[in-house]
Amino acid sequence: MLETPRANRLHIALFGRRNAGKSSLINALTNQDIALVSPIPGTTTDPVYKAMEILPLGPVVLIDTAGLDDEGELGQLRVQKTREVLPKADLALLVVDATTGITSFDREIAALCRQHNLPLVGVLNKSDLADPDLAAARAVLDLPWVKVSSRTGAGIEELKQAMIEQAPQNWEPETILGDLVKPGDTVVLVVPIDSAAPKGRLILPQVQVLRDCLDHGVMAYVCREFELEQTLANLQQPPALVVTDSQAFGLVSRLVPENVPLTSFSILYARYKGDLATLAAGARAISALKPGDRVLIAEACTHHRQPDDIGRAKIPRWLNQLAGGELQYTWSSGQGYPDNLEDFKLIVHCGACMLNRRSMLHRLQQARSRQVPIVNYGVLIAAVHGILERVLKPFGV
After folding, report:
1. CA 312 → CA 42, 151, 245, 339, 350, distances in Å?
2. pTM: predicted TM-score of the whole model, two decimal places
3. Any idea what the Cα angle at residue 332 is, between residues 376 and 375, rounded to 5°?
């Protein structure tokens, strides 16, 4: 569990006023000096992420944030960074200084969490300095409250139990492809190895799909695209499913018989991390693009650009061809969209392997609320190759 990717961990955000003890609580929960602790208000600036294990929740990420009562021009920038954590968190802890009690800032934080449908646990910290009344706290804010002392460790186990009880049960789907096949079936995974592939490793979606096959008793054959024809010939029966890297769709779709279900790692991930129906609708909107329309290409992480990069070169080239002329492109990398989202006719999103499910669902909702079609790389590539309906067929979309 220590090597579980961040995107596959339950995200638990700590919110509260400055000096409520959020960083100290992180250290107490992890039993390590992870977060910088100081009596000076505003010590925490950008959100700090710490991966750990909380059984039986399993792998989690704790997110330490700046106080929402921060002041000044820089303070407001820190507050904005804190607010940006809300859409990606699966569970929140409202940390209150027990010596001062619940304030208007704490009520504001609780209201923001409710707006985002975010489960919330109240933490009355510094209980070694004051003995807080849990019933009185519930009367002010109707939350499950726990009193703790980050300094002595009192109440930490009770807090962990409250986190377990309040954590969403469906924060991550149970399977990537296990519901598409049955135990004993054969799945062929087509994995091109090119200059962009990490040396000695497979990329995360490929690894997770392979593990999902093993978890569901499915026999997986892994080959490169130019080995696929021989792989299919070696099988005594046609596979129950072929999964390919999207960039090999052209060749793979010609080699795989029409009666064999075909999809891609990226499309499996689109369903696993978000809403495949929304992305499919975005792909079908590509035909409406006209020369001069604005397109946003959004990547959730930064990476070393390769020659003929998928997001910087290939996708713009394909879309220009489909639109019959030059489109205007904007690229964004990282955790947010540009403010002028409604100015775009299409959003093309990466596969979201570095985002957790809640973050990706939030991004999809932002696009829907601005009425901007959104598609991801894999679904778009299927549309470009004219096989969109075929690769969506296994999902009934």
Report:
1. 39, 50, 18, 21, 12
2. 0.69
3. 15
Residue 175 within any structural domain of the chain:
no
Cβ-Cβ contacts under 8 Å for 103 (sequence gap 6 or more): 17, 69, 96
176 domain residue, yes or no:
no
- Tens digit of each residue's pLDDT (9 = 90 or more) over 248-293: 999 999 999 999 999 999 899 888 888 898 999 999 999 999 999 9
The reply to whether 180 falls in a domain is: no
In whole angstroms, give the CA distance from residue 237 to residue 225. 19
Beta pairing partners, 189: 222, 243
| Structural domains in the chain (count) | 3
Residue type, 227: E
The domain that holds 333 is classified in CATH as: 3.40.50.11410
pLDDT digits (tens, 9 = 90+) for 23-66: 889 888 877 665 444 454 444 446 788 887 776 667 788 998 88
Whether residues 201 and 349 fall in one domain? no
